[in-house]
Specification:
single chain, 3-stranded antiparallel beta sheet
Length: about 150
């Protein structure tokens, strides 16, 4: 993604993206690109990185997103089951939150306030890598038992 595309997203959403997330978009990790290629997809849906996907999630689906997140949250991924992953753009730690249409399935404190799914963007990236690597390994093991 380019700096111009990032600025377009910021203007359109009214969110100033944190430095750590900007850096991730500008220098998307090769490891994530390799995982997407192994899976035969353009990008990993849990951590999207192209302008079109981020526009779709944050602008085209804004009404849906606002059902779960305040306006200063920016969606960075989804899991295909209606769950969204978003960053709090007002936090320098860049925690990642999960929200969606499944009440009771998202991290909360005792008072019902949302808790981060990952305390930092880096922790979330590591989590995404783990999930996709695990899925690839599982598929390979299935193929071995079928073959």
């Amino acid at each position: 993604m380019t700096e111009t595309e990032i600025q377009e997203l910021e203007t359109a959403t009214g969110c100033i993206l944190p430095a750590a997330y900007r850096e991730l978009l500008l220098n998307y990790p090769q490891r994530l690109l390799d995982l997407a290629a192994t899976l035969g997809v353009e990008e990993l849906e849990l951590l999207t990185h192209n302008h079109e996907s981020l526009t779709r999630m944050n602008m085209d689906q804004a009404e849906y997103v606002r059902m779960f997140f305040p306006a200063h949250y920016f969606v960075i991924g989804e899991n295909g089951n209606g769950d969204l992953y978003a960053i709090d753009t007002q936090s320098t730690a860049v925690p990642v939150y999960m929200g969606g249409p499944h009440p009771g399935e998202y991290p909360e404190d005792a008072a019902g306030n949302p808790l981060p799914d990952a305390d930092s963007l880096q922790e979330y990236v590591e989590y995404v890598v783990f999930l996709y690597e695990d899925a690839i390994q599982y598929e390979r093991e299935l193929d071995d038992t079928r073959g």
